[in-house]
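Components:
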Amino acid sequence: MIPAKSILPFVLPALAAMTIPAAGGQALSPVTIVDSLGREIVVPGRVERIISLEPEVTRIIVALGEGKRLVGIDFFLRHHDRLFPLVFPSSERLPVVSNQGQDLNYEEAIRLRPDILFSSPSEFRMTESIERKMKRPVVALASMGRFRDLLTEIETLGRILGREERAAELVSFFGSRMGSVRGIGPVRAADAGPSVYLSFWGSLLRTPVSYEPVGAAGGNNLASRLLPSYLGTAGATVSLEQILVWDPEVILVQGNYPPAERQVTVEGILGDPRLASVRAVRDGRVHYTFGFWYWWDPALVLVETAYLARLFHPGSFPNFDLTREGDAIFKEFYGVEGLFSALCRVLECHEWNPE
Amino acid sequence: MSGTRNKRATAAFVLAAVLPIVLLLLSLNIGAYRIPPKAVFTTIVGAVFPGGASGGPSPYADILFRIRLPRLLLALFAGAALAVSGASLQAIFKNPLVFEFSLGISYGAAFGAALSLVFLGRKVPAQAAAFLFAIIAVLAVLFIAGKAASQVVTILLSGVIVSALFQALLSLVEFFANPYALQSLIFWLMGSLAQAEWKDLGLTLPVIGVGVTVLILLRWRMNVLSLGDDEARALGVNINREKIAVIVLAALTTAAATAVTGVISWVGLIVPHLVRMAVGADNRKVIPLSAAYGACLLIVADDIARSVASFEIPIGILTSVVGIPFFIVLLKKSGKIWL
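Structure:
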């Protein structure tokens, strides 16, 4: 018989490991997930050190409450994102592991000993190359501008990080808020929404052929039939005449940048004599919206959809307050007060609201 | 043989006198906004003779005079500028592969636009910065070449150096650009006539007009210069002065066009070659015909760019994608280069 005293030093830690959840409630057994490239990937049960090259993924990791597991972030989030430093101030201390072109700095990445890396699905060769060189699981994840995929992304990250409950909470919150936008007044009628032209990517003539917040808010993106739907959010260049032919009721300008950096402005469009006959210009319905910013911030796109619903159907949202609504949504995602107000001070979006 | 070529030259001149205007008028009928040809006619007549025939409905006048006409005039002038500059430079350097890229003009303009779009916001328009740096690029080429500026090899090497420098500086600006400004820059670099406005044309067209006219007037001297330096000197021509005058004029016209249109490549190479294939290497014919057919080429290219699909294809991409294979076929068929 083996004395109990002699096996206790071995048994107790084992029992503890079985009963005490890992940091963040993470499961210890490997998890198999399918990434945005359709690849099945076995992720280790304990993911403590994360490198993310995909800003959208990084934002969701923080929203899941696991920002502390990040050991490296991408160039864009450090140098060009106005929102992320507000959402996750301690990211200032994290090393940047990619360059301007979002290429991975391998030596820095190896030094950081990640358990997993996240990359962009639009760079599938890079994903495979990183996997070969780093010998670590590399998960390519992004919404690519689709709500359905954004929610799947949140759930997938929840599974990888052992935060399924928090992920379900966020998905549910997202769905209920989106439902409340969709369910009000004339927004219910698919054909009741205004026709919308979007000026994105620093050009009056560049427009996304798919921008789901517009449809969700009850608007009709006029460029949606320009390119096949499988091209998703691809941008198309149109002519000024095409804008006149469409005669949009609302023109939206991407405003996710400080005013001094905007190449296309609302004032410029309203004062452009070539567009004087367009309904949106005649009626003064030319506004900024947020738009893509390396895909989305999940909280910001929700705020944006509510903001657009207010723009498209002012009568249905008489008491809408962009800042109050934005702060509440950001609080739910990131647990910090006044985040949206802070972003608005940078973008001057308190001046966007027409009323 | 000479008789056939003379007949061909006469036909080419007759066509050159008519075709740009015909294409411009026809192109006024092309666009996403459907305007019946009769309405185009009455709107134009109504604008020319306000008291006469009734103009079309107001949107027609706006579209024709605020959108289509400035765009077509820009295509006409820019096409002429690029083709005449290419033809002139090829003539004085006796080298069929010289065009605006060879003198650093395009990369100078691109760098200027990049500086404006990335660092200066809307304080300095991209057009102004592009023009300024295109001129700086040419001055740099002339400065590096120094007293040997009239020598083909020296000036081409100087052009290569300046192009490489501005290309590197452009990459540097791109590297530091935020993604938003980078998108604007990439769009500009593709070349487009879509944003043509009267306020831009007010500055651009006079510069191009003067440059192209003076280059056409110098066509006789280009013939002398293309004979070779000794022969030109024997005929009393000041080679350095004449060559530098042609370079500066070609640079001015190209810079004025590039500043507004973005980078549109190959026009300066393809059009003069096509003209030489038709009428021979006599610059008295090549220079004016290049102006006319360059204008035609860009008008047609722009018609295709804006009408082949419901979205626009950047004209710089179109001229390259269509122009390069076309040029290869011509070279293969002919088996020689005309100069």
